[in-house]
């Protein structure tokens, strides 16, 4: 009976082995990464378009068109608030970091398995926690 249990225990890990399309054997099933570098380029281009609007807003602040308590923005007064400029700059830094991490992940993971996905999820949770704590 003990021999049968030992044999079964040894067979279970082998049953999880999968032969990949490139001939390698892994313990976890892998799939081709559905996100390509061209998908990333599309997201990065969309971000650049959004960033150009933020750049105009920030430049107005630098050029002296600043909102004050008595000089608030309206249709005829296109001024910039310091708090919004700071928030835009902070969001820009975080977006650049996230885009960089996404690009590296796509390049380094042409195929996906559970370990790469768990690693990415862990990294995302860590980044979220850092932002929440104000460490970024």
Question: Could you walk me through the main structural features you see in this protein, from its secondary elements to its overall organization?
Answer:
With 136 residues, this protein is mainly α. The protein is 64% helix and 6% strand. The chain has four helices and four strands, in the order αβββααβα. The chain has helices spanning 2-15, 37-62, 82-108, 114-133; strands spanning 18-19, 25-26, 31-32, 111-112. Strands 1-2 form a two-stranded antiparallel ribbon. A two-stranded antiparallel sheet has the order 3-4. A hairpin with a 5-residue loop joins β1 and β2 (25-26). α2 runs antiparallel to α3 (82-108). The longest helix has 27 residues, at 82-108. Residues 1-16 have low confidence and may be disordered.
């Amino acid at each position: 009976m003990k021999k049968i249990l030992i044999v079964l225990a040894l067979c279970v890990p082998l049953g999880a082995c999968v032969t990949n399309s490139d001939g390698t054997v892994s313990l976890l099933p892998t799939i081709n990464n559905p996100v390509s570098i061209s998908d990333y380029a599309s997201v990065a281009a969309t971000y650049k378009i959004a960033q150009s609007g933020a750049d105009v807003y920030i430049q107005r602040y630098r050029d002296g068109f600043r909102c004050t308590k008595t000089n608030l923005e309206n249709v005829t007064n296109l001024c910039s608030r310091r708090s919004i400029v700071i928030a835009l700059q902070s969001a820009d830094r975080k977006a650049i970091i996230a885009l960089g991490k996404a690009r590296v992940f796509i390049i380094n993971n042409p195929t996906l398995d559970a370990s790469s996905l768990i690693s990415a999820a862990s990294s995302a949770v860590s980044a979220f926690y850092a932002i929440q704590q104000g460490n970024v």
